[in-house]
Amino acid sequence: MKSRVLVTVLAALALTATTAAPASAHPGRTPEDLRGLAHKTGVRIGSAVAVDPLTAEADYRRVLRREFTSVTAENAMKWESVEPERGRYTWEGADAVVDFARHNRQAVRGHTLVWHNQLPAWLTEGTFTDEELRGILRDHITTQVRRYRGKVGSWDVVNEVFNEDGTLRSSLWLTRLGPGYIADAFRWAHKADPRAKLYVNDYNLEWIGPKSDAALELVKGLKAEGVPVHGVGFQGHLSLEYGFPGDFADNMRRFTALGLETAITEIDVRMHLPVTEEKLAAQADYYRQALSACLSVRRCAEFTVWGFTDRHSWIPGWFEGQGAACLFDEALNRKPAYHSLLALGRRR
Ligand code: 9MR
Fold first, then answer.
1. Residue owning the nearest CA to atom 4 of ligand 1
2. Domains of the chain and CATH, by start
3. What is the pLDDT of residue 235?
């Protein structure tokens, strides 16, 4: 009995040693920037990156470099970007993001290997047999993961595979290859880079409900079969309209209990325009609660925003009359949401 207790204590100590935040010399101080927050909390703070401003805008690069410890290509690693014609790979955009990250000591999250969107026409309009299609998916995953072996630390292997009711989304992959395409994708990715952390990623997964229940069942099943799945990404596209998902942390904990990492992979908090101080304050509170949820969960590895500036955000193009969803405004001024995140570092 005694030795079991000792083993438990030692195991707990080992866990603490690998997951706890590094001790800070100034525990009571607010970190200077998000990088400081990341170092204090042990959670990577990332942003999605768009290649055009990365190439063209020095102030965009400056903030990205100063604030973030991780980057995700917003579009440049998607299938239509990297393989616009069968077997002809175009890595310029993806390489630009990875090179920037390496120069600035940032981690890279790979997004995404298998999705139903942003597929090239040669693939969606092609006439392939099921077996050919399976080979095409395997080659695509293998080529992309190998190219960035050791450079991309985590991959969103499958993205948005669920419907809201928890059934699997009908897609080219499901229809033609059957549900086994998910396990195959993880196995192929793992073979191409055995050290990369491999994730299931989705939106509207933040609260407990049919969709997150289904994700939980999926990863449970994959793990039981020995499929190399390591984490679940909660995109976190939130809106002031719908309220903050109050059970976010409890939900994440269900995944942690399976031995998985979690991450908030694409957070933004949109609002109906015009911007008011009240809305900015409410938005700050959503961001704060989301990071708090992550910090309260063991092995929440990353908190990534889907673009850091309102100057370049997908929201206005997709939700009419909405926007201002990011941490920095269009002129790259820090918004209340930014300060609400930093303040969480004070107590660490
Ligand atoms: O931000 C991306 C936008 O520029 C693209 O036009 C869009 C196309 O589907 O994809 C956006 O990113 C999505 C991400 O890849 C997956 N989760 C939802 C994101 C917002 O739509």
1. 314
2. 4-22+31-347 (3.20.20.80)
3. 99
